[in-house]
From TrEMBL:
Domain F-box: 9-62
Family matches, as InterPro entries: F-box-like_dom_sf, F-box_AtFBL13-like, F-box_dom, FBD, FBL13/AtMIF1-like, LRR_dom_sf, LRR_FXL15/At3g58940/PEG3-like
One Pfam family named in its UniProt record: FBD
Native source species: Durio zibethinus (Durian)
Name of this protein: F-box/LRR-repeat protein At4g14103-like
SMART domains referenced in this protein's UniProt entry, alphabetically: FBD, FBOX
Amino acid sequence: MDTRKVGKEDFISKLPNDVVAHILSYLNTKEAVQTAVLSRRWRYLWTYIHSLNFNDFHIREMEGRNQVFMDFVDRVLGLRGSRNIQTFTLGFYDFRRQNDLLRVNAWINYALCCNVKELDLFLLLEYEERIPVRLPENFSSCESLVALKLRTDFVFTIPSTITCFPSLKVLRVDAKHPDCEFLSTLFCRCPVLEDLFIYVNDLGQDGDDQVEHTFTISIPTLKRLKIDICRRFENFSDQKFIIQTPNLVYLTIQDDSMAYFVIDEIPSLLEAKVSIGHSTFFYKDQVSQQEAHRLLMGILKGIRNAKFLNLSASTTAALSYAVDDDLPTFLFMLRLEMGIDHFFGWKSLPHFLRNSPILEFLVLERVTFDEAGGELDVEDNFGWIPPMPQPYCLLQHLKEIKMRYLWALEDEAEVVKYLLENGKVLEKMSFMFDEDSSEEELNADMIEEFPRGSEKCVIEFD
C-alpha cells in the first residue's frame, strides 16, 4: 500500500455535507465562513452549520469595528437562510445601545425563528449604565429554547396569560443592577426549569446609598441552584434571597456579601456547598455576632437534609463567631467537608460532630487568609474544645477522616489525638501537611504513637 498517496487524500471533502457542517460548528463562525475559499463545493458548506458564535472581542482594536462586526453578522444570517440553529452565542463588546439595539434584536428574532435551542447573550454596557437592555416582545414565548444565558442586565415582556419558555431547562442570569421583581417573576414562570445559576456583581452599590433587593426563587421543578454574589468587603446583609425549591438536589451558595437567605426545607437535597463572607479579618467590622448568627442559621436550617455538605473556611469562621446550641441537626448527612481558618480555628467542629449522628466521612482542610493582613486578638482565636459527651457519629458511624494542609501546630495535635482515640469504628485516617509546616508540634511519628479507638484504623500520609 502506498502510504504517500493515502496521506494526500482529502477525506474531509468526501464526507456528507451534514457531517462537514457538524465539524465546522466547532469553529468560531468567522473561521467557518472563511472555509468558503477552499473550493467551489466548500463555498456554501458553512451555511449548514448548526452553531453560530459571534464575538467582536478579537477585533476590539480595529478602526470601525462596530460597523464591521454588525455587517458581518447581517451577511452571515442572510446567507444561511432559515435552517435550524442548535446554539447561538453573541458577545458584543462594542455595543452602543442607542444605535445597535434594533439590529441586535433582529439577530435574536432570527435565532428564535430558526428554533434555537441554546442562546447565550452578552452585551457590554457602560459601568454606570443602570437601565437594562430590552429584548424582543416575543422573546419569552420561544418554544424551542432549552438553555438560556443572559450575561447582561436584560428585561423582556412576560405575559400573564401564557407560559414562559415552555421548554427551558437551564437558565443563567448575570446581574449587575438587577430588576428583582422581573427576575423573580421570570423564575416562577418557567414550568420545566431544572438548572438555575444566578451571578450578581456589585449588587446594591448605588453610590453611598444602600439599595434593598429581594430575590424570590420559587421553582418546584428546580434540581440544581447556584448563587454567586461577588462584591468586595462592604456589608449589605439587608439583601434577601427567598428560596422555595422543594425538589432541589444540588445547592451552591458563594456569597462575599453576607446577604440574608430564607430557605424553605428541601427534603430531596443531596449536596450543598456554602461559602459565606470574604475574610475573617473583616468580620468584626462587617456584622455583629447576633447578625452573623441570624444570617448563617437561615441557610443551615434550610439545608439540614443534605447528605453531603461542604463549608468553606470563611463560612466555618463566621459560624465560629456566631455558633451556639441552635445549630440544626443534620439527620441525613453522610459526608462533611470543612475549611478551618487561622483566626477562628476549630470552634464549630464539635457542634457539627454532635449534630451529625450518621456522619461517615469527614474532610478537614486548613486554610490561611493571606489577604487578612494581620492577626486578631488572642481572645478571638477560638481553639479546640472536645465535645461532651462523645458524639454518636464517632461511636457508631464515622469511618474515614482526611486532614489536609496541616501546619503541625499544637491545636491540630489535640484534634488529631481526640479523633483517633474516640473514633470507635474508624477505618482510615489520612494526613497531608502544608509544605511550609515546621512539624515541631505534630508529625507523622507522633501521630503513629497516638492511641486509637479502633483496631481497624489505618493511618496514611500523603
